[in-house]
Q: What sequence folds into this?
């Protein structure tokens, strides 16, 4: 199954309890350069809360991808993006300890399990 990188992904509502460990699912495997732990990545992404299914952030909504060093991103991205290849789309499910920490941590998403769909557009 391939995806159209010009179309914002949709995330189906998850079923069952939120996972306690990082879940990585390749929706489309890319054929470009491979992201490494020290890479700077250019990505389009969509993020929703696991429990509510509500979108909390999406580069798509701003109309442009983000470009960041992986080391500056939440741990679930640091662990879930390396090995991904440019042109790929990957779904990551991050438990709180790999996202914004336990409830009461001061971030609006603290204590929440998060789902991201990430399109890898480039690495450097």
A:
């Amino acid at each position: 199954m391939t995806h159209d990188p010009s179309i914002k992904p949709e995330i189906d509502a998850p079923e069952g309890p939120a996972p306690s460990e990082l879940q990585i699912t390749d929706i489309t495997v890319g054929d470009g350069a491979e992201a490494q732990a020290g890479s700077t990545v250019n990505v389009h992404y969509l993020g929703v809360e696991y429990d509510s299914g509500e979108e909390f952030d999406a580069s798509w909504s701003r109309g442009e991808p983000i470009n960041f060093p992986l080391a500056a991103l939440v741990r679930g991205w640091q662990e879930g993006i390396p090995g991904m290849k440019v042109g790929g789309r990957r779904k990551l499910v991050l438990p709180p300890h790999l996202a914004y920490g336990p409830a009461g941590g001061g971030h609006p998403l603290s204590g929440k399990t998060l789902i991201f769909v990430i399109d890898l557009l480039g690495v450097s």
Summary: The first helix runs from residue 59 to 62. The mean pLDDT is 93. Residues 89 and 119 are 4 Å apart (CA to CA).
